[in-house]
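Working notes for the structural subgroup meeting. M.R. asked for a predicted model of this chain before we commit to crystallization trials. I am recording the input and output together here so anyone reviewing the notebook later can reproduce the run.

Input as submitted:
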Amino acid sequence: MRKKLNLPKDKKIIAYVGKLTTMGKSKGVELLLEAFVKVLNDCPQAFLLLVGINKDEVVNIKQKFDKFGVKSKFYKLILHVNYEKIIDYEKSSDVLVMSYPNTKH
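Returned structure, recorded in token form:
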């Protein structure tokens, strides 16, 4: 599955599937990026996979990775995909992260 999706076979993949915001509020993905830096320090074989982001969010995310000194070989950004394909990305991952805003939602 990883070969099919062009994902690294030798990495521990941490995946987040979804948008960066919901109901106009941040879903905390920025905190995931910050936490990933710490994970990467302790686990250099870690790899962050963000699936389902909007095209207009890519530049902002890449800037945050640059700010934290995370090179592109440690992450992959996948734009919105059909929900049927999402399961392939989830199956290819070692860890799945769910993040929601701190609201009654």
